[in-house]
């Protein structure tokens, strides 16, 4: 899952991004509304964690722009105000969910994951294919009933492949979904991660390389 965190309090923004990355999400961070609109115009995000009170371009206007463009990205709006009227106003602007500050980080993660499941064709909370069972919420993976310990990027790549439901996923698509924008697009990190993931999942291999196209399960 790829997430954009838009928050002008840099310490909070960076802390949220760090926590989401530990949950195997690819996260980009910006600190104002203008930068958010720029990133949204370049990258495809599953979820935008959007502070409402932003400099340069207000969070409300960022949300309106997403709705205007018809982008399927889900919006989790953050605000220091917990008034019911403010929550209703945020949802009426087009936000998909609303979380007042201060918030419990576990709740933020749960809400981001719930929104991420709604960005495309609805999928079950637990993904299963070819003897592999992946639970994004618990961060657990099993192969034929045996638990497999994966690093965050390995987990993210496996989740993308399982969500594709047998379709081929290119290396570029994996790079976009599992890594943030600071990753060198010419790196071999995708190939290395897939190799490690194959080894950890064991035999028989379930990740198939489609020459010239990418990978599938």
From TrEMBL:
Encoding gene per record: cutR
Lineage summary: Bacteria, Bacillati, Actinomycetota, Actinomycetes, Kitasatosporales
Keyword Transport applies: no
Top-level taxonomic group: Bacteria
InterPro entries membership: CheY-like_superfamily, OmpR/PhoB-type_DNA-bd, Sig_transdc_resp-reg_receiver, WalR-like, WH-like_DNA-bd_sf
One Gene Ontology term, aspect cellular component: protein-DNA complex
GO biological process: regulation of DNA-templated transcription
PROSITE patterns (alphabetical): OMPR_PHOB (PS51755), RESPONSE_REGULATORY (PS50110)
Coiled coil regions, renumbered to chain: none
Swiss-Prot/TrEMBL keywords: DNA-binding, Phosphoprotein, Transcription, Transcription regulation, Two-component regulatory system
Domain (Response regulatory) ranges: 2-116
DNA-binding region: 124-217
CDD domains noted in UniProt: REC_OmpR_CusR-like (cd19935), trans_reg_C (cd00383)
Protein name per its UniProtKB record: Transcriptional regulatory protein CutR
UniProt domain OmpR/PhoB-type: residue ranges: 124-217
Origin species: Streptomyces sulfonofaciens
Gene3D superfamilies xref list: 3.40.50.2300, 6.10.250.690, Winged helix-like DNA-binding domain superfamily/Winged helix DNA-binding domain
Modified residues (4-aspartylphosphate): 51
Pfam families registered for this protein in UniProt: Response_reg (PF00072), Trans_reg_C (PF00486)
């Amino acid at each position: 899952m790829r997430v954009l965190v838009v928050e002008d309090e840099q310490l909070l923004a960076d802390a949220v991004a760090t926590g989401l990355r530990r949950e195997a999400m690819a996260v980009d961070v910006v600190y104002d509304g203008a930068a958010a609109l720029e990133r949204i115009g370049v990258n495809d995000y599953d979820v935008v964690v959007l502070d409402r009170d932003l400099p340069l371009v207000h969070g409300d206007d960022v949300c309106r722009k997403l709705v205007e463009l018809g982008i399927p990205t889900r919006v989790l709006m953050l605000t220091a105000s917990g008034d019911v009227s403010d929550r209703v106003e945020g949802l009426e602007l087009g936000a998909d969910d609303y979380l007042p500050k201060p918030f419990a980080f576990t709740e933020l993660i749960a809400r981001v994951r719930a929104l991420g499941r709604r960005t495309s064709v609805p999928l079950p909370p637990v993904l299963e294919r070819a003897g592999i069972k992946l639970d994004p919420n618990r961060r657990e993976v099993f192969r034929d009933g045996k638990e497999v310990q994966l690093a965050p990027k390995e987990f993210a790549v496996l989740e993308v492949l399982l969500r594709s439901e047998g379709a081929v996923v290119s290396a570029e698509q994996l790079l976009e979904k599992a890594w943030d924008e600071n990753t060198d697009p010419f790196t071999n990190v995708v190939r290395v991660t897939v190799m490690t993931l194959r080894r950890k999942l064991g035999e028989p291999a379930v990740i198939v390389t489609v020459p010239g196209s990418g990978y599938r399960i």
